[in-house]
Write a structure and sequence with these properties.
- It is globular, with a radius of gyration of 21 Å.
- Strands 5, 6, 7, 13, 14, 15, 16, 17 and 18 form a nine-stranded mixed β-sheet that branches. Strands 1, 2, 9, 10, 11, 12, 19 and 20 form an eight-stranded mixed β-sheet that branches. The chain has a three-stranded antiparallel β-sheet with strand order 3-8-4.
- With 394 residues, it is α+β, with helices and mostly antiparallel strands.
- The protein contains nine helices and 20 strands.
- This is N-methyltryptophan oxidase.
Amino acid sequence: MTRTYSHVVIGAGAVGSAAAYWLSRAGAERVLVVEQFDLVNSLGSSGDHSRIIRRSYHRPEYVHLTDAMFAAWDRVERESGLPVLVRTGGLDLAPPADGADGPDRLAVFRDAMDAGGARYEDLTTAELRARYPQWQVPDGTTALYQADAGLIDIRRSVSAHTSLALAAGVEFRPHTRVTGVDVRDGGVTVRTSAGDVEAGGLIVAAASWLGDLMPDLGLDFRLTLSEEQVDYVASARPAELTPDRFPIWVWHGDEVMYGFPVYGEAGAKIARDMRGSFVTSEGRTHRPDHATTERSREFLARHLPAAAGPALRSAVCVYDMPPDREFVLDTVPGHPHVAVFNGAGHGGKFASLVGSVLADLVTAGSTPHDIGLFSLTRPAITDPAYAADFGLHA
């Protein structure tokens, strides 16, 4: 027997669970969330402890969204009683470029924050060393500091959104695989391993499994998957790296590295952005790479000796990216009742806000937020010859 819902959400990760929560707050009365794994699982991109949250971005469009981003998390914390956001402050650091005319690696972030009205401090090498003596950096290193930055406990956020949605009457169906979608004017049929369901609206938050559903949705843009790795290191002096003493950070050198204070595990967390281990949806290995771990440990030994030590734990996740590595956040052209999100490997910090935008799109038909940059009609989506650029969009 086919069941009918007002809205179906595909995927119960960070964004899907947020969409379910915000749909319930928007008055949607019969919402179903379909998830192929357990609820609050560690098999997608939301199973680790932490994701960076900050205002520094490469485009002002993202910076303009950060006030609403923080407000969304504040509301979830108030309603759930569960701390999700940990403010630590944040650093963007850049070693000196080659030559006096070398590029200012932080200019793009400074310009975007200026345009977006975000506050920050410029730090000289001496100021950086004085404020955070944990860092060992070469002369000429510059930094931007943001007081608002910190981390989102991403797994806890999924638990909070899911619990609030369940309490509001949203139905979750775990261990249920979506096998196809039929989209028609004013409604959809979602085919699942547990039978078909009918709905008036659909939100697709399937992360790196989006590619499997794109033909049914009438989408055909390139979605590139890359297995990325984070490492936790048993720090030599972990008390110097607690969230009250040490910020999140991004190192903009020849390679982009990023890291966290000690949180969730008894060690500092570090990763390289865009390791570029490209895979298919079926070809994920879920296996950490020893050489990647050693490169991260060498970086810590050179620049953050208080964090250096033996490897403690490694984890692998997947970046799923359109060619320009910007978000996809839009309704399907010609079908305003079907909304799609792709986080391009940097969506965790915006998860609750994105969930509210998706709920707005399929209930009210619009959103007060400027999401034009993330359109499904932009060249990176519509032009098969668009040159891919997977640079840092953290």
